[in-house]
Write a structure and sequence with these properties.
Oligomer: single chain
Strand content: 15-25%
Structural class: alpha/beta
CATH architecture of the largest domain: 3-Layer(aba) Sandwich
Number of domains: 2
Distance between the termini: 11 Å
Shape: globular
Length: 375
C-alpha cells in the first residue's frame, strides 16, 4: 500500500512533528508500506528530492513562506492509496484538500497541537485555525490524536461530539535502543564528572519553540545553585541560543549550564544514559505531547515535566512526575528532593514505555487503520 505523508516540517529542520513523521515512515516501511513524503522547501540549499530505504521525500517550493509557514498552491501528483496530513500546517491545508478532492483517496489527519502565539502572530493563528480546522476535520476519514487528554483540552474539543466516530487515539511511540552503556563510560566519553548531578534539556532554541520553558528552569536552578553540584546540559540549536545564554547569565547560573547545540541521534542516546534526570518545563499548550519524555524514559532516565494536557500522560507512573505550569519554586523543590533521595525505579520506567509507548504499538495501530480505510 502506498501512503502519502504531508508534513509542515521535516529533516533537516529538527522539530517534533518532523521526528514523528520520520519515525512513522520508517516503521511503516518495515511493515511493507511504500512511503512518500511531501513537505515545503524552506531553504534553497536543501535537496528537493531524495530517497532512502524507508521513504522518498519531495520538498516543494512554496509561493510564500514565513518561518515554518509555507503557502503551497498545489501538491505534485503522486501515486498513492491514502493521504496522511500532519496538522497544523499553515499554508498547506488548502492544497491537501484539493488533492483529496481530485483523487478521492482516503484522508487521515493527525492533530498534533493547537496554534498558539502572542500578539499579531497569535491573532493570525487563531483566524487561520477557525478557517481551516472545520474544513479539514469534515474532509478527514479519520482524525488521529496522540492523547485524548490533550485533544479534549484543545481547539478540537468543540468538535468532539460531531466527529466522535472519526476520532481515534494513537499515542506516538519510541523504538527501544539495543545499545546500552553504563553511566561511568558515557560520562567519561562526554566529559562529565561522575560526581555531578546532570539535568538534561532537549529542545529547539528557536522562535517557533518559544514555549519550551527554559526561563522557568533557569529560575529554578538559581534557587539551587548553592545547594547542589549540578550541571544543566542543553541539547538543541536555534537562533535564540544567544538569548538563552544571556538569560542564564542574568539568572546567575551560566556556570551551571552547558549549551551543547545539535548532537547526533547516537550521541543523544549517550546523553540520555549519562544524565540523572530530564526536565521538560514547557509553558503552554503548544507543547502537546513531549516526545523527548518517551525517548529519555526508554533509556531508563526519569523525567520531570510541566502538568500540561497530553504531556502529563507521557510520564511513567514511577518517574519523578509533574509540576504546576510556570511554577519555578515548585520545580526547584522537586529537583532538590530528587537529588537528595533519587529513589526512582529506572527498570520500571523502561518497562512502562515498552508496554505502553513502543513504536511497534503505534505502527500496528496505524497499519490496521490504513488497511481498513483503503479497502
Amino acid at each position: 500500500m502506498r501512503i502519502l505523508f504531508v508534513s509542515p516540517v521535516f529533516k533537516p529542520y529538527s522539530a517534533g512533528i518532523g521526528r514523528v513523521v520520520e519515525n512513522e515512515a520508517k516503521g511503516l516501511s518495515r511493515s511493507g508500506f511504500e512511503i512518500n513524503i511531501l513537505t515545503p522547501l524552506y531553504n534553497q540549499r536543501w535537496i528537493q528530492e531524495e530517497k532512502n530505504n524507508a521513504y522518498a521525500i519531495r520538498r516543494v517550493k512554496p509561493l510564500r513562506q514565513l518561518g515554518n509557514a509555507a503557502l503551497i498552491k498545489n501538491w505534485p501528483r503522486e501515486d498513492f492509496d491514502l493521504i496522511h496530513l500532519h496538522y497544523p500546517f499553515i499554508g498547506g491545508v488548502r492544497a491537501t484538500l484539493k488533492l483529496k478532492k481530485k483523487t478521492g483517496q482516503p484522508l487521515v489527519v493527525t492533530y498534533h497541537m493547537d496554534l498558539l502565539q502572542d500578539g499579531f502572530k497569535g491573532l493570525f493563528f487563531k483566524i487561520y485555525s477557525r478557517l481551516t480546522l472545520p474544513k479539514i476535520l469534515q474532509a478527514a476519514d479519520k482524525i488521529i490524536v496522540s492523547s485524548l487528554d490533550y485533544a479534549q483540552n484543545s481547539a478540537l474539543a468543540p468538535f468532539f461530539l460531531k466527529y466522535q466516530g472519526k476520532i481515534i487515539e494513537i499515542p506516538f511511540g519510541v523504538e527501544e535502543s539495543g545499545k546500552y552503556l553504563n553511566k561511568e563510560d558515557t560520562r567519561r566519553e562526554l566529559d562529565l564528572s561522575l560526581s555531578l548531578k546532570v539535568i538534561l534539556f532537549v529542545g529547539a532554541l528557536d522562535k517557533a519553540h518559544y514555549f519550551k520553558g527554559l526561563p522557568i528552569l533557569f529560575k529554578a536552578l538559581q534557587l539551587l545553585k548553592n545547594q547542589t553540584d549540578f550541571r544543566l546540559v542543553i541539547i538543541g540549536k536555534g537562533e535564540r541560543r544567544e538569548f538563552y545564554q544571556n538569560l542564564a547569565k542574568k539568572e546567575g547560573v551560566q556556570d551551571k549550564v552547558i549549551f551543547k547545540g545539535f548532537v547526533s541521534d547516537e550521541d543523544l542516546i549517550k546523553y540520555y544514559q549519562s544524565a540523572d534526570l530530564l526536565v521538560l518545563p514547557s509553558s503552554g499548550k503548544s507543547e502537546a505531547y513531549g516526545m523527548v519524555l518517551l525517548e529519555a524514559q526508554s533509556q531508563g532516565l526519569p523525567v520531570l515535566a510541566s502538568d500540561l494536557p497530553g504531556v502529563r500522560k507521557q510520564v511513567a507512573p514511577r518517574s519523578v512526575g509533574v509540576f504546576p505550569v510556570g511554577d519555578f519554586r515548585k520545580t526547584a523543590y522537586v529537583l532538590r528532593d530528587f537529588f537528595e533521595k533519587d529513589k526512582v525505579d529506572r527498570a520500571s520506567i523502561k518497562k512502562w514505555i515498552l508496554e505502553n509507548r513502543s513504536a511497534n504499538l503505534e505502527i500496528k495501530k496505524l497499519s490496521d487503520l490504513y488497511k481498513t480505510l483503503a479497502r
